Amino acid sequence: MDAFFASVELLRYPQLKGLPVVIGGSRHTPEHEAQLIAQWGSLDAIPVEAFPRLARYVGRGVITTATYPARQFGVGSAMGMMKAARLCPQAILLPIDFVRYRQYSRTFKDVILEMAPLMEDRGVDEVYIDFTLVPDGQHEGGRVLAASIQQRIFEKTGLTCSVGVAPNKLLAKMASEFNKPQGISIVMPQDVEHQIWPLSCRKINGIGPKAGAKLQGLGIVTIGELAAKSLPWLMQHFGKSYGAWLHAASHGQDDRAVVTESEPVSMSRETTFDSDLHAGHDKVQLGAIFTRLCERVAQDLQRKGYAGRTIGIKLRYANFKSVTREITVDAFTQDAGTIRRVAGQCLKRVPLEQSIRLLGVRVGCLVHWDASTQQAEGAVPVLPRKSTGKGDPLSLPLFD
DNA sequence: TCTGGGGTCCTAGGACCC
DNA sequence: TCTGGGGTCCTAGGACCC
What we know:
It is found in: Cytoplasm. The protein is of the alpha+beta class and 400 residues long. 36% of the residues lie in helices and 20% in strands. The termini are far apart.
C-alpha cells in the first residue's frame, strides 16, 4: 500500500491532500476526535490552518509514515520526530490510529483474497500474492491482474497500492518499489542484469544497515558488484549461511514459498517512557507500568486464544543498550498474575543502576489455549523430560 | 537530530541426555 | 590426566522487517 497510514488519514481529512503530512508521536483517541467534531462540525471541515504542525512537537516519537510531499523534504518513516521537525517544520502532524489502519488492512486483503486466494500476510500494509494459477494471472506478464487488483482495492477503500510482478518474492518485493505510488513493475529473470544489478545492495530485503555497511567496507555497493563475488568469497566473509544467501539474492534467486498460514511465535508489549526512569527513584511508577504491560500481554493472549510458557522482559537503558531475560516454566499460562510473577524473577537478574528508557514483557513458546478447560488445543509441543531416567526401561544407556 | 512498537529468525554457548 | 559424537532445549543478543 502506498504511504498506507498517511493515505488512510487523508481519507478523513481530504483537505490535506497534496500537503506534507506525517503520522507519528501520539495515539489517536476517540475522545479527541469527538472534540474536533464538536468544534468544527465534521472532520473534513477543519481548516488546514487549525492542524498541529511538526515544529510544535516535543517528545521521543518517530515518524511512522510521511506523505509523498513530506518525503520531498527528506522526512521518512522511522526518523525521529525532532529531526523531522527540523527538516520540515511546517508539515502537519497527525496521531497514529492503529484501529483504523487495521480495518483498512483487513478490507484490502479481503479484496485480494477474492481475486487470488494464495496470499501471504506480510504485515499491515503488505502481502505476497501467488499469480501462478489465477485466471489471467499470466496475461501481459501479470500486468492485467495487477491492474485489476489495484482497481478493486481503490474501489473498496479509496487507497492506492503498488505491485511488483516477478518469478519470486525477492524480485517481486524489489519490483514493487520501482514505480511508487500506484505503480506496476514486472521483472523477468532476464531483466535481473539491467534492472536489479545497478541498484544498491540495501534494496535487497534482508540486507539492512549492518550488512550494508560491511559490504560497503569491502568495496561492494551495487547488487551487480555483489553478484560479481564468488560464493566461497562471500561465505568466507559472511559465514556459510548468510554468504550463500547473499550470493543467491544478488543473482535474483529465491525459492521461498508463498506462505498462506502461520502461527504466532510470541506476543509482547513494550513502552518507551516520556523521560528516563530509575529503578530506585521511580520504583512505584515503574512497578505500575510493569504490571500494566503484563496485563496487556495477558489480555492479548486471552483475546487471541493463546498461552505460553516462556516469559521474558526487555529493558532499554538511557544509553540505548538493551538487555533481555527470559524464563521457561513448565506450565503454559495466559494469566496476568503468573506472567507478572515470572517476569519479576527476570527483572531481578538484570542490572538496575542505570536509568531506563524502555520496558517490555514478552510471552513465547505459544500454543492454542482453551480458557474453559485450561488445556492446550491441537498439537502440544512435547515438554523436555526433567527426570533422570532412572528406572525407565526405555532410557537404559545403550553403552557406557 | 538521540533513535516506537510489534514481530521473526539466526547464532552461539552451556546444560543435559543417550 | 584428559576425555567422542549426536541430539534437544534453554538463554541472550542481535539483525532485520513492517
